[in-house]
């Protein structure tokens, strides 16, 4: 039995949410999605039993954004194990290191089951490491093993619930995916707090928000210039960050609305000419997600390894520094560039180069490559005017658009994420990019679902 | 010409966060209804809150 077979078998024997026998309507989907988000947010505010505030292992902001995690709570691991397992499986399959042919129903099911099995293994490993790390000091020194097991047990159950919440939404009970919803909710929470938070939450690096801070300075006749650029505190939202946040949201909305139109005709529509759009941001925010997951995983295992093996932690810390900007002890604002210019350059290069690599790999993994797209077009009876309906010919034409689009969109999203982080955007550059793209995809999804409900004939046309 | 059902099955289910999952076939051995699962989640949260409030950690 290969390791993939073992993971797939493990995935099969883990409890799963049943698929709906009848497709829920839009309001039911919204209800299940809201329930999932509420449960997630409640778990992200319930402290783990047996963990004191002094022993909380602070997550990095980037880690909290990409893993939708909250330090010291039931959502300590967040969606980290799910997204890490998915990333590993997709990279292995995309690079052909794992020989799974995703063209058959059987292998598709095996791939999904193996992802779930691997995610569960990550849940076990991370939970027990956290259980050990979070309880090894303090007043519980007399029985750290027992308490460590209790903490690990809570983390295993809570993180598995998060996995099932995501599965429930993906299987058709809700809208879109749980992972996206949880990331969106986490980023929105951080942005809201950076704008309007009235107290500091030190365990989650949440400062007093910009507007309460501004009011406080105006009332006390303080120096208003001090909040234009934060030069003193590690976490303090400033005006440059606010302006960057708003500008970036507008820029991302604009970029996601740009399409490259390819003229086609359709046999189904009696040869009527129309166009099919290729998104300018062809790989969406995927490269940024992958680089951030890699960085966050290195940070996570580095911080845990510091309690277990200092030598391993030393190696991971050296790698980790290239993924973290600004460093933990300097202001998270544009002023960080003045204090650590070399760090900014190193972070930018590593992020952008990896972003391009992941973007190009993603095109192959997700079936966005010219060959797959050409095959889909031919099977759907779509032709390109002036060209024979031949997969190879259409593939050649699409390759002229798709590879440059994949390259440049990877560069653009990586530069946006890096630039925004350097300018001290609220919720990190990666967070804003993810939140806006996810929100826009949800907007499209809602419009699609609503159209299907309003015009039942459409359901038959799209095969629902 | 492929049927709409066939065409739909060819499209991988890509979540917005970049994870690819396929849920056309269900081979899982243990299936639970979402209602039972939500209740189990609420019970876990309640137990952790009750433990924290009533039983001090050792």
Structural commentary:
Chain A has 464 residues and is mainly α. Chain A has helices spanning 3-13, 26-43, 61-67, 80-94, 105-135, 144-173, 178-196, 210-219, 239-256, 286-308, 310-320, 336-339, 341-365, 370-379, 391-422, 429-454, 456-462; strands at 16-17, 259-266, 273-279, 382-383. In chain A, a hairpin with a 6-residue loop joins strand 2 (259-266) and strand 3 (273-279). In chain A, 45% of the residues are buried. The mean pLDDT of chain A is 86. Chain B has a domain at 31-58. Chain B has helices at 4-10, 34-54, and strands spanning 13-14, 20-21, 31-32. Chain B has a two-stranded antiparallel ribbon with strand order 1-2. Classes of the chains: A mainly alpha (464), B mainly alpha (58). The interface between A and B is large, with 81 and 45 residues. Strand 1 (16-17) of chain A pairs parallel with strand 3 (31-32) of chain B.
Search tags:
heterodimer, A: 464 residues, mainly alpha, Preprotein translocase SecY subunit, 2 domains, 3-stranded antiparallel sheet, globular, B: mainly alpha, two-stranded antiparallel ribbon, elongated
Element layout with pairings:
The complex is a heterodimer of chains A (464) and B (58).
Chain A: H1 3-13, E1 16-17, H2 26-43, H3 61-67, H4 80-94, H5 105-135, H6 144-173, H7 178-196, H8 210-219, H9 239-256, E2 259-266, E3 273-279, H10 286-308, H11 310-320, H12 336-339, H13 341-365, H14 370-379, E4 382-383, H15 391-422, H16 429-454, H17 456-462
Antiparallel strand pairs in A: 2-3, 2-4
Helix pairs in contact in A: 1-5, 2-6, 2-7, 3-10, 4-5, 4-10, 4-13, 5-6, 7-16, 9-16, 10-11, 10-13, 13-15, 14-15, 15-16, 16-17
Chain B: H1 4-10, E1 13-14, E2 20-21, E3 31-32, H2 34-54
Antiparallel strand pairs in B: 1-2
Main location (chain B): membrane
Pfam families (chain B): Sec61_beta (PF03911)
Subunit structure (chain B): Component of the protein translocase complex. Heterotrimer consisting of alpha (SecY), beta (SecG) and gamma (SecE) subunits. Can form oligomers of the heterotrimer.
């Amino acid at each position: 039995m290969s390791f993939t077979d073992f993971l797939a078998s493990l995935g099969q024997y883990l409890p799963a949410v049943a698929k709906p026998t009848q497709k829920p309507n839009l309001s039911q989907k919204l209800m299940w999605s809201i329930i999932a988000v509420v449960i997630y947010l409640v778990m992200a505010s319930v402290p783990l039993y047996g963990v004191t505030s002094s022993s909380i292992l602070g997550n990095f902001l980037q880690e909290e954004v990409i893993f939708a995690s909250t330090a010291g709570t039931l959502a300590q691991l967040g969606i980290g194990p799910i997204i890490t397992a998915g990333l590993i499986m997709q990279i292995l399959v995309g690079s052909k290191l794992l020989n799974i042919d995703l063209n058959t129903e059987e292998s598709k099911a095996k791939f999904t089951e193996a992802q779930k099995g691997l995610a569960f293994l990550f849940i076990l490993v991370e939970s027990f490491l956290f259980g050990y790390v979070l309880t090894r000091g303090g007043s519980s020194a007399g029985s750290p093993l027992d308490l460590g097991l209790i903490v690990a047990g809570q983390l295993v159950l809570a993180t598995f619930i998060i996995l099932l919440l995501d599965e429930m939404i993906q299987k058709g009970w809700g809208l879109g995916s749980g992972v996206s919803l949880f990331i969106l909710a986490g980023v929105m929470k951080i942005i809201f707090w950076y704008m309007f938070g009235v107290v500091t939450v030190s365990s989650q690096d949440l400062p007093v928000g910009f507007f309460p801070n501004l009011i406080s300075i105006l009332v006390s006749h303080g120096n208003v210039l001090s909040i234009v650029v934060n030069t003193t505190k590690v976490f303090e939202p400033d005006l440059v960050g606010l302006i960057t946040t708003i500008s970036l949201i507008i820029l991302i909305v604009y970029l996601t609305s740009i399409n490259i139109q390819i003229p086609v005709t359709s046999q189904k529509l009696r040869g009527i000419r129309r166009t099919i759009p290729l998104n300018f941001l062809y790989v969406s925010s995927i490269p940024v997600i992958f680089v951030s997951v890699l960085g966050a995983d290195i940070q996570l295992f580095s911080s845990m390894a510091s309690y277990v093996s200092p030598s391993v932690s030393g190696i991971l810390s050296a790698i980790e520094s290239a993924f973290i900007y600004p460093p933990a002890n300097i202001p998270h604002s544009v002023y960080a560039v003045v204090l650590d210019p070399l760090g900014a350059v190193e972070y930018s290069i590593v992020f952008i180069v990896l972003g391009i690599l992941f973007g190009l790999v993603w095109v192959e993994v997700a079936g966005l490559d010219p060959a797959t797209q050409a095959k889909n077009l031919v099977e759907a009876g779509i032709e390109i005017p002036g060209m024979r309906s031949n997969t190879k010919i259409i593939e050649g034409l699409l390759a002229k658009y798709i590879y440059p689009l994949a390259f440049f969109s990877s560069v653009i999203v990586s530069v946006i994420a890096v630039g925004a982080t350097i300018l001290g955007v609220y919720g990190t550059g990666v967070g804003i990019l993810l939140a806006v793209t996810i929100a826009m995809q949800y907007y499209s999804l809602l419009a699609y679902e609503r159209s299907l409900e309003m015009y039942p004939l459409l359901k038959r046309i799209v095969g629902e | 010409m492929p049927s709409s059902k066939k065409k739909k099955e060819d499209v991988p289910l890509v979540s917005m966060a970049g994870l690819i999952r396929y849920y056309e076939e269900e081979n899982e051995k243990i299936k639970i209804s979402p209602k039972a699962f939500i209740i189990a989640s609420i019970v876990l949260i309640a137990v952790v809150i009750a433990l924290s409030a009533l039983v001090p950690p050792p």
